[in-house]
Amino acid sequence: MSKGLIIAIDGPAGAGKSTISRQVAEKLNYLFIDTGAMYRAVAWKALNAGIDLSNQESIIAVAQQSQIELKGKPNSQQVFVDDRDITSEIRTPEMGRASSIVSAISGVRRALVAQQQQMGRQGGVVLEGRDIGTAVFPDADVKFYIDASVEQRALRRFQEDSAKGISLTLEATRDDIIERDKRDMHRTDSPLVKADDAIHIDTSDMSINDVIAKMLEMIDSRK
Q1: 16-61, pLDDT tens digit by residue?
Q2: Of 14, 136, 146, 173, which sits 20 to 30 A from 191 (CA to CA)?
Q3: What's this model's pTM, rounded to 2 decimal places?
């Protein structure tokens, strides 16, 4: 039996890549690795330990010493840090902003990228993040770059947050998206950028099902 593919899915915040990646992994019966959740986990642990996010040395130590596990099926995956389930606690705007700051620290990236490579090197895996196709698995079998307009991404994130009871205005959500893009795209270590060989998909005017169908068709052609 041939080993499964390594599928890299990158893109900015709010483009829909998390939902899409989960569905693709579910349909392929592949392991799903939400790398963003791993950075959120480090941010969560650092903040709960009272560590200031400007204290890079201490945050690197947190990343190196933490046991981060992703358990369960793609659509119901749980995130554990040192055997504690923090799934719901990391899915807040505060943790999103904190993870963006933490993910810009080179030592943190080195620690987590090593874990991600270990988890995915056997294939049969979908990895979602911002540097999968450029830094984590530059030789991935299939690479996608999922994008959408700032307005559409802000609206989606605003609707998601509202459904969770998170009170932010659409304008504030848009500002947060723009600031997140700036940090992700201009950080020194592994900035968010489309890999040269990645398939670009703009989801602004596409349904989730249409995007997934298009991706699965492209993946199938690579098998």
Answers
A1: 999 999 999 999 999 999 999 999 999 999 999 999 999 999 999 9
A2: 173
A3: 0.89
Q: How many domains does the chain have?
A: 1
Q: How far apart are CA 156 and CA 219, in angstroms?
A: 26
Per DSSP, what are the bridge partners of residue 69?
Answer: 80
User: Is residue 223, in this structure, part of any structural domain at all?
Assistant: no
Structure-token pair, residue 143:
């690479």
Question: Does residue 203 form part of some domain?
Answer: yes
Q: What is the pLDDT of residues 149-184, one digit of tens each?
A: 999 999 999 998 888 888 889 999 999 999 989 988
Phi, psi (degrees; rounded to nearest 5) at 204: -50, -45
Whether 126 is covered by a domain: the verdict is yes
Is 1 inside any structural domain? no
Selection from 142, 114, 110, 112 nearest residue 126 by Cα: 142
Can you tell me the mean pLDDT for 124-135?
95
Read off the CATH number of the domain in which 194 is found: 3.40.50.300
